[in-house]
Task: structure prediction
Amino acid sequence: MNSMLKFKQSLNLEINAQISMDNLKNIVNQFKTEGTVATITPFGSGHINDSYLVTTEPEEASDYVLQRINHLIFRNVPELTGNILKVTLHLRNKMLCMTSAIGDFQVIQLTPTHTGSFFVYDPDGNYWRLYNHLRESKSFDVVLNPALAYEGGKAFGLFQYLTSDLETSSLYEILPDFHNIAKRLSTFRKAVTLDQVGRVNEVANEIAFIETRSDEMHLILRLGEEGKIPVRVTHNDTKFNNILFNRENKAISVVDLDTVMPGYILYDFGDAIRTGASTGAEDEADLSRVNIDLDLFEAYSKGYLETALNFLNNAETDHLAFSAKFMTYIIGLRFLTDHIDGDRYYKIAFPGHNLQRARTQFKLLQSMEHHYAAMQEIIRRHAEKIKN
Ligand code: GN1
Ligand code: MG
Result:
């Protein structure tokens, strides 16, 4: 480990030794899979857990996604698993009763082990789980056209609609205060004061960017405290690449259920726009290529409102455009905090990756600020159209 990181323990499991193919196979074999394992290869672009695609033989047998859960971040794996089982069961039951509205929508499922558990704890202290892989499904890190954005909006709207009658109190709050801006700013300011790895000087502009917007960014927290927006079951990690599409580019599922918890739906809408209506990837280095794409924004909003507007209250609808600015701000803040902290939380692919991600978010936020009136108008227009 880099000696500079001795101050605090890293929360990133990647620093552990590589896991051998034989070990991975042994782990998969503890689950009740169809077929026998053919290949196991790294999969997806998550920053927290490690994922592998497991293909099996014969051809007709299901394939799987094996995940090593980052238990330094998700510290209570039994409760985490309990949340996922509750949510997926609820979704499946609801979908049985309403086949017409859900089209091809499917729910991913945890695979049980031979001993009836839904995760494996290995001798090295790692936690593993196995999901079924939806055949020929794919996801998008950058959204290619409005039709995909529209599909994405419908998918997260449907997810929220289907979970809207699941008791929030039945879910364990796996990462408390996950999108709480007051807490995130306080952690950030502590990191700036400590300056553990001596990076604060080089990010003075980014720190100023955060501070000049910090008051306005308390808006959603305040609306919640004033009781104007309800606590609902929310996904909390609605990156666009957490939506699965089929070959015809229809959205067929929503994945990455680790952070499903009580929260405000504005967080889910905003995070999907941050990643689904940007012209660049989350870590695009060329900031001139990072802007809000109003066509993608409009298409996502339309799809979302068509499925969600009937249960949103006015305060929620009125703040959808703001939520996109908010989520871009808070995720940029977290990337910047991690950079200042010595890259302890997110996996990085190269030195300075977290700073680059933060800068990308800040550029995107500036673009949203520039087009904010148009974003608000788009929401108002589509909400009106659907109501009438
Ligand atoms: C992390 O699991 P993954 O990599 O999609 C993070 C999210 C951030 C996201 C930024 C548990 O998500 O909150 O929005 O990175 N998840 C956790 O890309 O912190
Ligand atoms: Mg996640």
User: Anything to note?
Assistant: The longest strand covers residues 50-57. Confidence is low (pLDDT under 50) at residues 1-6.
